[in-house]
Amino acid sequence: MNTKAELIGIARKTRSRAPMESLDRVEVTKELGVNGDYRGKLRRRQVTILAKEDWQAACREIDQGDIPWTERRANLYVCGIVLPRIKGSKLSIGGVIFEITGETDPCDRMDEVAMGLKDALTPNWRGGVTCRVVGAGTLSIGDPVNQII
């Protein structure tokens, strides 16, 4: 079994409710977060990160195992790591450093995707984390993910 933590998805949206655009590579800056994503100017919520294991657990809970991760509308999709649940914790993905600013609270839109998904994402920060960029760089699918101690 491969236990390497890595980046397995990158997505952005140009405005609220816009379709998610999946990418293989993207620039991430301190000023704008994920290049081209409309939320990047929000200092405490520049980038959102979702763990595959949490997403799959929530989807299984409502018997919906095949919902694409982009329906969660997160920017980054990672696997093989338990995302830190403490504000101020730091993650590195490739050469980019993120500071956890909070939990990505599930919204009512999740129940538009699948009834019960909002509640399934609520426990244990399953909906992912919000971050601010503290070290800029380029992200690519397959980049390693590490918690910075």
Automatic annotation (TrEMBL):
MOSC domain mapped to chain residues: 20-148
Any single Pfam family the record assigns to this protein: MOSC
Superkingdom of this protein's organism: Bacteria
Gene Ontology MF annotations: catalytic activity; molybdenum ion binding; pyridoxal phosphate binding
Signal peptide feature range: none
Protein name, per record: Molybdenum cofactor biosysynthesis protein
Biological source species: Thalassospira profundimaris
